């Protein structure tokens, strides 16, 4: 066999290259090899790698693909040597039939650095592997046959071609017969037996002839047929066919047994000489297995499967012979009509089972070939995939397709695609073939972890055990494998400054790197740290890793772990407390002193309650449950002892509650002589008791200390009384209310009846004072002003600087209409006039000598439309109301600012008239009056209002305006 490398002849060959978007390339020119048929399997065909200039080291099963026409794969490639060799028996007669040239085309797909497609033609040369064969070996000739009559001898069949095919016939010697070989128009040779000498049946009834057919091969092959000539009676008319060519069209899926065509021949003879029988004269072996000719009727039937793909037409020659051996011949041409009985076939050439997400569009996933053995539209194939897939089909050339990506793939949306490729022909009805491919998307670390919440809040009670679990954080990563493995870690800011030190978060809490659980590394103290803010980072295991941070707030919850701390009365180092004085003439409800305590806890744990635990006289004193005020519960009796010892218990509202107690000593006396007298009698009694008991000496030191203390207190008391009395008398004399003019109705009414009101914020307890003096009386009653304070102070609440009583400034006069806002007070003498604006009535007012029911509220209507409400005691409003209304109508106010300024001017004029001065001297804004102390009851408070029940009695001289409930 000879290997031939095809020359590049651009004029003789069509250009086969289509440049593909996926990087394919077809190579022009052809490579042709020539082999003989019937060579052994494994025989060498050609050095394909060398001829195609392929790299042997790069050859692999995926590197080169060979596709052969037809259904058999006759050739294979040795990837080590690059040689093309025979893999199946090659029979030229089976592949090409009687064609003069037999070519097999191979398509070689090279997938090394660049995809290339080569066409290789393999010429199959014929060898003389078939001897001529005869089908019929007997003829009958009538004795009356004339000399020169020709008898067509049976043809010999030789499937070889050219010189290897049938070349001639030879007849054995016989005096009656000679052989004449004729050549048909198509080049085929056929033999005729010529009667040279008349036959005499009586002389010889049978003549045996030997007919030999030879081909032109080397060596020459031959076939013989024993021709038996039977001499019969005379039959001078051969059969005649109705037409020389019978042509019919038949569907390839015709049912078996169907009559395709019927041939007909007639004989004018009679009897047995006219009986015609039909037979095939010339037919291929394959056709003889498909078709059957009825010898009597001449009907040609299909007994096998008629397949257009096997052969689109069948040509055969039929013979009609009468009873005496005369015959005629005719041709039958069957055209097989194609039926769409073959679905397209998909052959995968290259396939990638996976692709990385984010791969650029146009990445090749698979290469395949789609063919349909049908013809015409039945063989036209179109391929498609579902439109929902992010892929597309790209036709390369001929019947080759590439499956490529149409857009970027995201594994988090779809991790695997089941691709169905549908190949459909254009037949009616169309047939289709479906091939399923599985494409996995490989993960890429393109997603950071995501927390389930935007921020986290945790709670833990103080005094927690070390290692206590606080909360769990959870983050997820939609990636896969190591890219989705999330680890947690703390970001390390510093804790808020505490006692002069800073502590990192890592020393207070820890987080489990795998589960995200947060644990406490120490026991927290609510009183030192209430809130802890930090950040947690969730990081995946990708390369490079991606991370996300989240803010976490940890709240420390309070526990009742602090007992109340008593601030007043303070205990000395020896455990004793100071002595409180109370007149024996005190009425029930007289304020003796107040126990002040705080609790370092917060909330309910800091709500304090007070109760009298022990007392010398249990019924004489009572303690305010919420205020801690010690008051007289009844009048002091003569039998009551001078010295009263009380034990007050302070208890918080925690669970369980904690408590503290304090001892208070109260001395009951109206004057210094009484105190000294009582002390003397007590000392004498004590001395007598001591003498009777053993003659102990009296203790003069205690008496001396008591005398000095009482004298000091009395001196301070009388000094304060004289100064207060002088101040009151001076103001009373200078007051225009004492004159008999228009203000004569105010005679005897102290100016102190005007009490300041703060209507914007919560009110504190306020205590007023009143002096009732009678000349020469020892029962004069003096009520001292008491500094108001809250019931409970918490250690966490900073001591705010108390705001002064509301003065005549812009911040205290407004036209608001909301409840609680817009109340103002104007300075006037010793007190304040309650003033309100808007539609809501002012809060209830408690003033010395006038209850809330004795206050008259009225409106000042300015010409500008401003409506300002003012509250005055009723015995003052009769005089002041007409004057204020007159002034309001006389003033033409246009703006809110003018209204405020004019209202302040009215109040200042009223103040000057009350003080008898020529000009008003209001204190500076936001500053308390000279006698206002920080912590007084009229101070503003920003605390929310939640007043507890009060223990104040109707007879109390200290009037409660409002109280403050602990937070």
Automatic annotation (TrEMBL):
Region (Disordered), start-end ranges: 912-967
Pfam families registered for this protein in UniProt: Cadherin, Cadherin_2, Cadherin_C_2
What are the subcellular locations of this protein?
A: Cell membrane
**Topology of the protein relative to the lipid bilayer:** Single-pass type I membrane protein
Question: Transmembrane residues, as ranges?
Answer: 704-727
Q: Name one GO cellular component term.
A: plasma membrane
The yes or no answer to whether the keyword Transferase is present is no
Checking InterPro entries in the record gives: Cadherin-like_dom, Cadherin-like_sf, Cadherin_C, Cadherin_CS, Cadherin_N, Protocadherin/Cadherin-CA
What are the entry keywords?
A: Calcium, Cell adhesion, Cell membrane, Coiled coil, Glycoprotein, Membrane, Repeat, Signal, Transmembrane, Transmembrane helix
PANTHER family reported in the protein's UniProt record = CADHERIN-87A, PROTOCADHERIN GAMMA-A3
* Name used for this protein in its record: Cadherin domain-containing protein
Q: Which organism is it from?
A: Sphenodon punctatus (Tuatara)
């Amino acid at each position: 066999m000879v290997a031939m490398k095809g020359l590049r002849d651009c004029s003789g060959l069509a250009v086969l290259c289509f440049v593909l978007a996926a990087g394919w390339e077809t190579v022009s020119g052809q490579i042709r090899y020539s082999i003989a048929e019937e060579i052994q399997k494994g025989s060498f065909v050609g050095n394909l790698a060398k001829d195609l200039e392929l790299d042997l080291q790069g050859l692999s099963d995926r590197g080169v693909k060979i596709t052969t026409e037809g259904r058999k794969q006759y050739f294979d490639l040795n990837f080590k040597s690059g040689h093309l060799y025979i893999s199946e028996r090659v029979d030229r007669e089976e592949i090409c039939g009687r064609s003069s040239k037999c070519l097999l085309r191979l398509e070689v797909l090279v997938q090394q650095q660049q995809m290339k497609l080569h066409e290789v033609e393999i010429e199959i040369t014929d060898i003389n592997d078939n001897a001529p064969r005869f089908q019929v070996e007997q003829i009958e000739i009538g004795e009356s046959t004339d000399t020169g009559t020709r008898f067509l001898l049976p043809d010999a069949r030789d499937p070889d071609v050219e010189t290897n095919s049938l070349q001639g016939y030879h007849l054995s010697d016989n005096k009656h017969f000679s052989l004449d070989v004729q050549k048909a128009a198509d080049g085929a040779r056929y033999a005729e037996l010529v009667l040279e000498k008349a036959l005499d049946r009586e002389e010889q009834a049978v003549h045996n002839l030997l007919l030999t057919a030879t081909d032109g091969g080397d060596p020459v092959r031959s076939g013989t047929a024993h021709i038996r000539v039977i001499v019969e009676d005379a039959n001078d008319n051969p059969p005649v066919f109705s037409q020389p060519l019978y042509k019919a069209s038949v569907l390839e899926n015709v049912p078996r047994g169907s009559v395709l065509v019927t041939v007909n021949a007639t004989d004018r003879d009679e009897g047995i000489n006219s009986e015609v029988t039909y037979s095939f004269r010339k037919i291929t072996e394959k056709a003889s297995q498909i078709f059957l000719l009825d010898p009597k009727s001449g009907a040609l039937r299909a007994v096998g499967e008629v397949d257009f793909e096997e052969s689109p037409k069948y040509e055969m020659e039929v013979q009609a012979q009468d009873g005496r051996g005369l015959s005629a011949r005719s041709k039958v041409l069957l055209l097989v009509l194609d039926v769409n009985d073959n679905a397209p076939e998909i052959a995968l050439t290259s396939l990638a089972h996976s692709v990385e997400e984010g791969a650029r569009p146009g990445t090749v996933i698979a290469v395949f070939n789609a063919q349909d053995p049908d013809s015409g539209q039945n063989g036209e194939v179109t391929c498609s995939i579902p439109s929902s897939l992010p892929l597309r089909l790209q036709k390369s050339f001929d019947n080759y397709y590439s499956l490529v990506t149409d857009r970027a793939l995201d594994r988090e949306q779809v991790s695997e695609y089941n691709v169905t490729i549908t190949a459909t022909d254009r037949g009616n009805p169309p047939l289709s073939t479906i091939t399923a491919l599985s494409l996995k998307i490989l993960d890429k670390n393109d997603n950071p972890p995501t927390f389930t919440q935007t921020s986290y809040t945790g709670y833990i009670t103080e005094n927690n055990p070390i290692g206590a679990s606080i909360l769990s954080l959870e983050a997820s990563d939609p990636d896969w494998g190591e890219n989705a493995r999330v680890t947690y870690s703390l970001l390390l800011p510093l804790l808020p400054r505490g006692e002069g030190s800073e502590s990192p978060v890592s020393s207070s809490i820890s987080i489990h790197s795998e589960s995200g659980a947060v644990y406490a590394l120490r026991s927290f103290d609510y009183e030192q740290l209430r809130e802890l803010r930090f950040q947690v980072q969730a990081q995946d295991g990708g390369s490079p890793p991606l991370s996300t941070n989240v803010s976490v707030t940890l709240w420390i919850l309070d526990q009742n772990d602090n007992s109340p701390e008593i601030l007043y009365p303070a205990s000395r180092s020896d455990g004793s407390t100071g002595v409180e004085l109370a007149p024996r003439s005190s009425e029930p409800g007289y304020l003796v002193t107040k126990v002040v305590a705080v609790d370092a806890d917060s909330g309910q744990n800091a709500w304090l309650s007070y109760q009298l635990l022990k007392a010398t006289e249990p019924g004489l004193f009572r303690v305010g449950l919420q205020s801690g005020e010690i008051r007289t519960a009844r009048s002091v009796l003569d039998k009551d002892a001078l010295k009263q010892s009380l034990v007050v218990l302070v208890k918080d509202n925690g669970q369980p509650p904690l408590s503290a107690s304090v001892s208070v000593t109260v001395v009951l006396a109206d004057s210094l002589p009484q105190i000294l007298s009582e002390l003397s009698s007590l000392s004498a009694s004590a001395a007598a008791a001591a003498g009777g008991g053993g003659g102990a000496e009296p203790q003069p030191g205690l008496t001396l200390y008591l005398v000095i203390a009482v004298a000091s207190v009395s001196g301070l008391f009388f000094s304060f009384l004289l100064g207060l009395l002088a101040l009151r008398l001076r103001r009373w004399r200078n007051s225009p209310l004492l004159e008999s003019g228009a203000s004569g109705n105010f005679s005897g009414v102290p100016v102190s009846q005007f009490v300041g009101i703060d209507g914007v914020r919560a009110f504190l307890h306020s205590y007023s004072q009143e002096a009732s003096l009678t000349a020469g009386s020892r029962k004069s009653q003096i009520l001292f002003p008491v500094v108001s304070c809250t019931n409970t102070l918490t250690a966490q609440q900073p001591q705010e600087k108390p705001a002064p009583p509301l003065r005549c400034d812009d911040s205290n006069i407004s036209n608001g209409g909301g409840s609680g806002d817009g109340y103002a007070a104007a300075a006037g003498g010793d007190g304040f006039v309650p003033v309100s604006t808007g539609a809501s009535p002012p809060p209830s007012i408690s003033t010395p000598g006038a209850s809330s029911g004795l206050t008259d509220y009225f409106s000042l209507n300015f010409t500008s439309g401003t409506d300002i409400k003012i509250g005055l005691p009723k015995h003052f409003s009769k005089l002041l109301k007409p004057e204020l209304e007159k002034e309001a109508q006389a003033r033409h106010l246009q703006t809110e600012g003018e209204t405020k300024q004019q209202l302040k001017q009215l109040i200042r004029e009223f103040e000057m008239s009350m003080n008898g001065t020529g000009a008003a001297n209001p204190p500076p804004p936001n500053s308390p009056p000279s006698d206002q102390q920080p912590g007084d009851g009229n101070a503003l408070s920003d605390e929310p209002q939640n007043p507890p029940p009060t223990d104040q009695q109707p007879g109390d001289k200290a009037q409660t305006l409002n109280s403050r409930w602990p937070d």
